[in-house]
Each structure stands twice: as structure tokens, then as C-alpha cells.
């Protein structure tokens, strides 16, 4: 899947093992669910605005957010398993972050 802007307003988006979701721009998750199975990857070259719903990284899935990450009051970000979530800029969190793996801040 490749897009310049990804907007989710209530859908369930699931990335199978080893799938790559690449957004060449920003992603706005108004509500809904995005889940990334073992070894799946999310790459966003812009910012992630996550108002409400669930974003789940399972197993050793990986996420790369190149710009700011905004998590709203009803947003639930779960980094379960032993993968890594890379947040290159600021994270503004009003919701829930649950982490069992690694979350790295700043450029690697």
C-alpha cells in the first residue's frame, strides 16, 4: 500500500506478516484500528496524527515515523512483542502508550 496521505475514519487496517505499509506523506487516524503482524512494517515519511482508536504493533513488527507523532485522548498505541518503533521527532501524547518492545526517539 502506498499513499501520499492516509486517512482512516473507523476502518480496520491489518498488515499481514512481512507486509510494508508506506505513506509518502502524513497519516491521520481519526478512529479505527491499524495492526501490524509479526515482521510487518509501517513507514510514514511525514507526521502521524492519531486521534482515537487502536494502533497495534505485534511480534517484531517495526514502525518508522519521520515527523511528529500526536496521540489524542482516546488513542491507544500498543508496541507489543520485541520489535521497535522509531519516532524521529516529537511525541505529543494524551492517550495511552503500552510498550513491551523498544521505542527509540531521534534519528538513528
Describe the fold and architecture.
- By secondary structure, this protein is an all-beta fold.
- Strands 1, 2, 3, 4, 5, 6, 7, 8, 9 and 10 form a ten-stranded parallel β-sheet that branches.
- The protein has strands at residues 2-15, 20-36, 41-44, 48-57, 62-65, 69-79, 84-87, 91-93, 96-99, 102-105.
In one word, what is the shape? globular
Distance between the amino and carboxyl termini: 25 Å
Q: Which percent band covers the strand fraction? A: over 45%
Strand count, sense and barrel status of the largest sheet are:
10 strands, parallel
The oligomeric status of these chains comes to single chain
Helical region count? 0
The percent range for helix content is under 10%
Number of strands: 10
* Uncertain parts: none
Structural class: mainly beta
Mean pLDDT: 92
List SSEs in N-to-C order: EEEEEEEEEE
Radius of gyration: 12 Å
Topology:
Elements: E1 2-15, E2 20-36, E3 41-44, E4 48-57, E5 62-65, E6 69-79, E7 84-87, E8 91-93, E9 96-99, E10 102-105
Parallel strand pairs: 1-2, 2-3, 2-4, 3-5, 4-6, 5-7, 6-8, 6-9, 7-10
List the defining traits of the structure above.
about 110 residues, mainly beta, 10-stranded parallel sheet
What's the short version?
This protein has strands at 2-15, 20-36, 41-44, 48-57, 62-65, 69-79, 84-87, 91-93, 96-99, 102-105.
